[in-house]
Amino acid sequence: MTFSYDRQIKAVDDISFTVEKGEVFGFLGPSGAGKSTTIKLLTRLIVPQANSVFILGRDMAKVDYKFMRKIGISFENDVLYPTLTGYENLYFHAKLYGINKQEIEDVMKTLDIFDARDKPAAQYSKGMKTRLVLARALVTRPEILFLDEPTGGMDPDIAAYVRKVLKDLNNQGTTMFVTTHDMHEAEQLCDRIAFFNSGKIVDIDTPESYKKRYGESRISFTVGDKIIAVDRKNKEELLRLIDQDQWNSIHSQEATLEDIFIKVVGRGLKDGE
Asked: Do 82 and 104 form a contact (C-beta atoms < 8 A)?
């Protein structure tokens, strides 16, 4: 898949990947890397070239609106109608696909926004708006979900609850394509993760395999007001520090997914913002 806005710089540069049915696939890249363009091509917000994007076995250049019921899209950007109530926002979308009132109410209850159903969307907090957009994506009971910052703006307890809802849906067979700046969330949700930069996929692997391939496990010694980090493989230095018996505490320190991303890609997720 390739795409350019000006026929000179490629926002998406000849990428190819497969997401298995029932998989949660993370797609992580810095701002300006071409991530949003990729998602728009996958979800037909930009019509892709024929035979370049296939979802559920269908060429996305040729599908009709009835097929789009099988795809749920939850973007971080506020795409709600601010003067309509939360319920009306969902009803407007659901009516296109023949979704009944009970199904709308059920998804609002699942995401704990039912009590705010009669409030205009403009009065929702950022976290509630994110849940309302997610509810709109879920109301058609899609087979595949595209999620952009799925817990953005939420309090930690609500974010944890929403992640549980998503995990339950995945356990029921829903395939998910996730983009997020929250590496902890990506590690919790995703089966595999693609590192993306400058229009290209740099690497694809599981979180565990990334850590095995690129992670550097260290032991941290607190000595007075100093912290000394030593590679776990450096047994000579570890024994020396232990034998000195001047340390206050010892901690195991594993490489984070964000550390590995920077190592592989060369810059952080938030670079370019």
From this structure: no
Please state, in angstroms and rounded to a whole number, the distance separating the CA atoms of residues 144 and 70: 7
- Percentage of the chain beyond pLDDT 90 is 65
Q: What are the φ/ψ torsions at residue 268 (nearest 5 degrees)?
A: -80, 165
Where in the chain do CATH 3.40.50.300 domains reside? 3-206
Domain 3-206 belongs to what topology?
Rossmann fold (3.40.50)
How many helices, marked H, and strands, marked E, lie in the chain? 9, 13
Residue 206 and residue 193 in contact, taking contact as beta carbons nearer than 8 Å: yes
User: Would you say the C-alpha torsion 180, 185, 186, 189 has a positive or negative sign?
Assistant: negative
Long-range contacts of 62-67 (CB under 8 A, 24+ apart): 65/96, 66/97
Stronger pLDDT, 4 or 243, i.e. the higher one: 4
**273: pLDDT strictly greater than 50:** no
Q: What pLDDT is stored for residue 220 in this prediction?
A: 81
